[in-house]
Amino acid sequence: MRASSLILLGGLALAAAKSCTSMEDCSLNGICTCHHTCRCDPGWTGSNCGKLDLQPVERWTGYNNTNFTNPDFYREGGGNSSWGGQIIHDREDKGLFHFIASQFKHGCGLSAWRPFSQVIRAESRTGPRGPFIWKQTLFDTFRHNPTVVWSPADEKYLIHFIGQDWETPDVCRSTKTNNTISVSTSPDLKEWTEQIPLVVNVTNPTAWPLWTEDDHTPEMLLASEKNNIYYSPTGYAGPYNLTVEPGNIEIHPSMRSEDPFLWRDKRGHWHFLVHHMADIPLGLKGPRVGAHAFARDWRGPWTYENETLAFDAFVDFTDGGRTEYYRRERPKLYFSEDGEMTPLYLVNGVQEFGNISAYTLVQPIGEAWKAYEDALGR
Ligand SMILES: *[C@@H]1O[C@H](CO)[C@@H](O)[C@H](O)[C@H]1NC(C)=O
Ligand SMILES: *[C@@H]1O[C@H](CO)[C@@H](O)[C@H](O)[C@H]1NC(C)=O
Ligand SMILES: *[C@@H]1O[C@H](CO)[C@@H](O)[C@H](O)[C@H]1NC(C)=O
Ligand SMILES: *[C@@H]1O[C@H](CO)[C@@H](O)[C@H](O)[C@H]1NC(C)=O
Ligand SMILES: *[C@@H]1O[C@H](CO)[C@@H](O)[C@H](O)[C@H]1NC(C)=O
Ligand SMILES: *[C@@H]1O[C@H](CO)[C@@H](O)[C@H](O)[C@H]1NC(C)=O
Ligand SMILES: *[C@@H]1O[C@H](CO)[C@@H](O)[C@H](O)[C@H]1NC(C)=O
Ligand SMILES: *[C@@H]1O[C@H](CO)[C@@H](O)[C@H](O)[C@H]1NC(C)=O
């Protein structure tokens, strides 16, 4: 009697883990089929489509200049450390990919990110995995965590970042500054003409225009730390109102996160990829570092997936190596350009164990990135 009910319970648990009844059970990253199993969209995997289908990384792609040194460096071992960035395909020159990233001045490492961080632009003519080559400093110290989005309503790029003008000290040392989000605009990513400070006085911005093919609205969403979503009816210059409150997602310590990255998918549903901080209370930086949250409507209700994580601190390399990173944060995705919003690459700021330096990793996702690169003529 007891044994058979245990077997029955076990069977139910197995069925429960795999069966779905709605698209929410498939993390809004796939379809729940008539067999009650999820059919995941390309790039997503796992029984609930909550995991990124991450592929091995080729070494020395992305943006890794940690072995560089310069006469103006205050110390050795930091290189040109960087901490995350965003890949953007040039709108006219189809062989060109831009990379807008946070990079630390004077060879300082991650621990001195504030105030040594600048916003820089790098370029690749070898595809979206790079390696990206440094081209220019866009915003001097202290500027950090840029996020770039094309605004169809304004026909220009918007860059949101944190920071303010700040003289750096003459040693690599952390300083407390106000973070506050500013926005600047550009037609081509090279010249940034306008800067509106203090759009909202919080940290870690991620923006998405509400413009669609059918509705040419100027309305903007600007999300930030804790996945709060600010809304502006009039466009990127604001004023913004906090519209989605933190409690909607962050209702439990296991859902503590930072560094949100917001997007709307091909079905019009909404997603966040975040730096998941479940191991911080244990005194660790990982390995549980990447989570996904989703909602049909940006106003919510939002579901934060704290069981099946989107990514972790382990990365496989094409040479057969495997690295567990000390820190892996600042997630951003690069999507296909065919309207399907297939994630092709995951970008993260990473730091190895025992290093002061940091760099930016670009990891391919699923299968679609290969055809994408073939079409570029790589
Ligand atoms: C990044 O550069 C460091 C040397 O500064 C090297 O040890 C490491 O393997 C590189 N990582 C990747 C992923 O290219
Ligand atoms: C850094 O490593 C890359 C890749 O191995 C190499 O091409 C480059 O010359 C190295 N730079 C320095 C300064 O050692
Ligand atoms: C490092 O950054 C400086 C600007 O701070 C730039 O001049 C230099 O070319 C960069 N080097 C590499 C290898 O990215
Ligand atoms: C932070 O902002 C407040 C209000 O704008 C200002 O009074 C204060 O001086 C700022 N702190 C720093 C370190 O700039
Ligand atoms: C921004 O927020 C910080 C920290 O909460 C505060 O010290 C500062 O005064 C605020 N600045 C403005 C202009 O409100
Ligand atoms: C922000 O909210 C306030 C109070 O609800 C309202 O009066 C104001 O019109 C709103 N502003 C925007 C830009 O939505
Ligand atoms: C996920 O969150 C729920 C609360 O909603 C909590 O009970 C559960 O322990 C969390 N799971 C993990 C793995 O932290
Ligand atoms: C990290 O430290 C190891 C051992 O000192 C070194 O071989 C490696 O190049 C360092 N990696 C980076 C990214 O600086």
Automatic annotation (TrEMBL):
The keyword Signal applies. Keywords: Signal. It comes from the Eukaryota. This is EGF-like domain-containing protein. Residues 38-49 form the EGF-like domain. Residues 1-17 form the signal peptide. It comes from Emericellopsis atlantica. InterPro entries: EGF (IPR000742), Glyco_hydro_beta-prop_sf (IPR023296).
